[in-house]
Design a protein that fits this description.
It contains ten helices and ten strands. The protein has about 300 residues and is of the alpha/beta class. It has one domain: Metal-dependent hydrolases (TIM Barrel, Alpha-Beta Barrel), CATH 3.20.20.140. The chain has an eight-stranded parallel beta sheet with strand order 1-2-3-4-5-6-7-8. A two-stranded antiparallel sheet has the order 9-10. β9 and β10 form a beta hairpin. Bound molecules: zinc ion (ZN). The site of zinc ion has 5 residues, from loops.
Length: about 300
């Protein structure tokens, strides 16, 4: 057997984007193909509002989650990737829904949609509640208070279902992580299952206070995160909005970064197991696997 020129490409390393969106009106499967071609194997796909209208009825959230599931199954069938679903009513929706429904009804709608999301996890259709959270911008005090109430309900539902919670909020520093950790502790939510998505600043485990960051896979955050033990994730938060090209990282980014790291130093392979295996196993309780180059659940 001639092994010359054979690159040592261990095919058992999963390559995971921990947070992205795909839209039926966007690139959809084609974007996932690009991730696969760059070496990607597993996607955590978060639901989103697909039309121009913010949901004001529970049925609209049910339809939204079903659209996300349809996209996930299409991606799996056409690309061979494994796709995990994250579902919840987008927290900012409450503000827009309050304009037509009134604040109390908007809070009620968020709660019912969160309960629906919890049932999706119980039924094995989704692996986490997300995005839950609060506005990343300043809002009127009554809206901020209502957002906190809803976030607390979301954490309680995720706690009772026993799944991770993926939080959308403003960028956090060490004090911000401490505050969020204290908030979650008051809801008796286990911190090891609390993920701050779209984290830009790399912090030490002490500064993170037990919360798991999902870092936006910029060059700096990727290099910085590798200096810390896990758990932490990498994500693109790809929005799949053709009207806003370049507004976010491309879906192939995590896979390209992983490939470059492996090419530059073979010993990086072990570090890549932090976001792609160790963090997923610690937070979600399952291991994304690859057998003979084929991603499996
Ligand atoms: Zn997102």
């Amino acid at each position: 057997m001639n092994l010359e020129g054979v690159v040592a490409e261990p095919s058992d390393l999963p390559v995971v984007d921990h947070h992205c969106h795909l839209s039926p009106d966007g690139e959809g499967v084609a974007a996932a193909q690009r991730f696969r071609a760059a070496g990607g194997t597993h996607l955590f796909l978060a639901t989103q509002q697909y039309g121009p209208k913010t949901p004001t009825r529970l049925e609209e959230y049910a339809a939204q989650f079903e659209t996300t599931e349809r996209i996930a199954r299409a991606v799996e069938a056409e690309t061979g990737l494994v796709v995990y679903l994250t579902v919840a009513p987008y927290p900012i929706d409450m503000i827009r829904a309050a304009e037509t429904l009134g604040l109390q009804a908007a809070v009620g709608l968020q709660r019912s949609a969160l309960e629906l999301a919890g049932r999706w996890v119980e039924e094995g259709k989704a692996v986490a509640l997300g995005e839950i959270g609060r506005p990343h911008f300043a809002v009127a005090p009554e809206l901020a208070e209502a957002s906190s109430e809803v976030l607390r309900s979301a954490l309680e539902i995720a706690r009772d279902v026993g799944c991770p919670a993926v939080v959308h909020c403003e960028e956090l520093d060490a004090a911000g992580y401490r505050e969020l950790a204290a908030f979650a502790a008051r809801a008796s939510f286990p911190l090891g299952k609390l993920v701050k998505h779209y984290a830009k600043t790399v912090l030490s485990p002490e500064e993170l206070g037990g919360i798991v960051p999902s870092y936006l896979a910029s060059r700096d955050a990727v290099a910085g995160s590798l200096r810390h033990p896990g758990p932490w994730f990498w994500e693109t938060d790809f929005l799949d909005d053709p009207k806003r090209p370049g507004a976010v990282l491309d879906l192939a980014t995590v896979a390209r970064r992983a490939k470059a790291l492996r090419a530059s130093a073979p010993e990086n392979l072990d570090l890549l197991r932090i976001p792609f295996e160790q963090a997923v196993e610690q937070v979600y309780g399952f291991l994304p696997t690859v057998r003979h180059g084929v991603p499996t659940r």
